[in-house]
């Protein structure tokens, strides 16, 4: 990037006119957070009825306009559209002359770094990738959740301070991610957060089938403790029948799932194998117990291995 743009950035007013292209769950929340920091939302674009409702809820009195008009009005533009839509949107905005020199252009995709904004950079924009590591609901609670939220930040070196300042103004914590590491970074977040929702939903369904009236109340303390333990101790927090090598118990689980919830069986087996591998690697699963366990998992629970006694002190 040429350095002749930097005086424009330094001379920019402290408070910015903010625009949002894509009123999904993320954009209005970030704009509302920037508004709390003293910036001024001036325009938002949204197509669906749900997008328009979110914009009205989080950014009341901010006009809904076309994307090109958002860029015309705003000093700082948040591009908060789906990952697969982002490259085409950036190219289209640049080719139609909507991008203005010196304009801060921010996308919130986890997958992409700053290079996806290269067409806008060539038009004189200042490219920033700011991805909040948070799940969004499209309601005002999202603004509160940004406090202390980590943001994956990628930008040219000369814009690093500007990117970090914006994150801090939104109440977040900037975490620098190299351009080439963005896909791996995003995969890690998806593995942890998106798959967690699936696992919890499946667990709740199974508990209801087992007669539990309030599975959310039962799981809340358990999962909260498991998450806290995992964040504090990593693999050392592993527990349960797989980590103990209780092949008979795991085989019983598999038989029950095959009968009552076959759609969850593949996921159970995949996670049990991954857990067994990690437990073995970290010395938690005794090698002499692993053979029967891995046999159960390889056979999808077929057979009836002898279940070892459960050590009540090692649950």
How would you describe this structure to a colleague?
50% of the residues lie in helices and 11% in strands. The protein has 14 helices and seven strands. It has helices at residues 6-11, 27-36, 49-58, 67-73, 86-95, 118-122, 141-145, 160-169, 182-209, 215-233, 241-244, 247-260, 265-281, 287-298; strands at 17-21, 40-45, 76-79, 104-107, 126-132, 150-154, 173-176. The chain has a seven-stranded mixed beta sheet with strand order 2-1-3-4-5-6-7. Strand 3, helix 5 (86-95) and strand 4 (104-107) form a beta-alpha-beta unit.
At a glance:
By secondary structure, the protein is α/β, with parallel strands linked by helices.
Keywords summarizing the entry:
315 residues; alpha/beta; disordered N terminus
Task: Describe the protein's topology.
Elements: H1 6-11, E1 17-21, H2 27-36, E2 40-45, H3 49-58, H4 67-73, E3 76-79, H5 86-95, E4 104-107, H6 118-122, E5 126-132, H7 141-145, E6 150-154, H8 160-169, E7 173-176, H9 182-209, H10 215-233, H11 241-244, H12 247-260, H13 265-281, H14 287-298
Parallel strand pairs: 1-2, 1-3, 3-4, 4-5, 6-7
Antiparallel strand pairs: 5-6
Helix pairs in contact: 12-14, 13-14
């Amino acid at each position: 990037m040429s350095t002749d743009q930097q005086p424009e950035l330094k001379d920019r007013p402290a408070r910015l006119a903010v625009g949002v292209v894509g009123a999904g769950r993320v954009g209005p929340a970030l704009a509302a957070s920037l508004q709390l920091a003293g910036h001024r939302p001036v325009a938002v674009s949204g197509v669906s009825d749900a997008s328009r409702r979110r914009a009205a809820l989080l950014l009341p009195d901010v006009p809904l306009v076309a994307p090109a008009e958002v860029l015309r009005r705003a000093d700082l533009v948040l591009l908060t559209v789906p990952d697969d839509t982002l490259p085409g949107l950036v190219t289209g905005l640049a080719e139609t002359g909507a991008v203005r020199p010196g304009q801060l252009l921010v996308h919130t995709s986890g997958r992409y770094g700053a290079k996806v904004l290269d067409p806008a950079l060539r038009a004189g924009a200042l490219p920033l990738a700011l991805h909040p590591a948070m799940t969004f609901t499209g309601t005002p609670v999202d603004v509160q959740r940004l406090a202390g939220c980590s943001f994956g930040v990628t930008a040219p070196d000369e814009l690093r301070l500007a990117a970090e300042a914006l994150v801090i103004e939104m109440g977040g914590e900037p975490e620098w991610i190299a351009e080439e590491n963005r896909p791996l970074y995003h995969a890690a977040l998806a593995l942890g957060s998106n798959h967690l929702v699936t696992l919890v939903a499946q667990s709740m369904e199974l508990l209801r089938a087992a007669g539990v009236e309030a599975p959310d109340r039962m799981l809340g303390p358990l999962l909260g403790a498991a998450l806290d333990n995992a964040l504090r101790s990593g693999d050392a927090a592993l527990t349960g029948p797989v980590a103990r090598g209780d092949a008979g118990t795991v085989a019983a689980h598999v038989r029950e799932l095959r009968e009552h919830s076959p759609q969850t069986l593949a996921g159970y087996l995949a996670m049990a194998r991954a857990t067994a591998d990690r437990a073995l690697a970290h010395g938690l699963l005794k090698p002499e117990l692993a053979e029967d366990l891995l046999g159960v998992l390889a056979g999808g629970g077929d057979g009836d291995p002898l279940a070892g006694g459960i050590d009540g002190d090692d649950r």
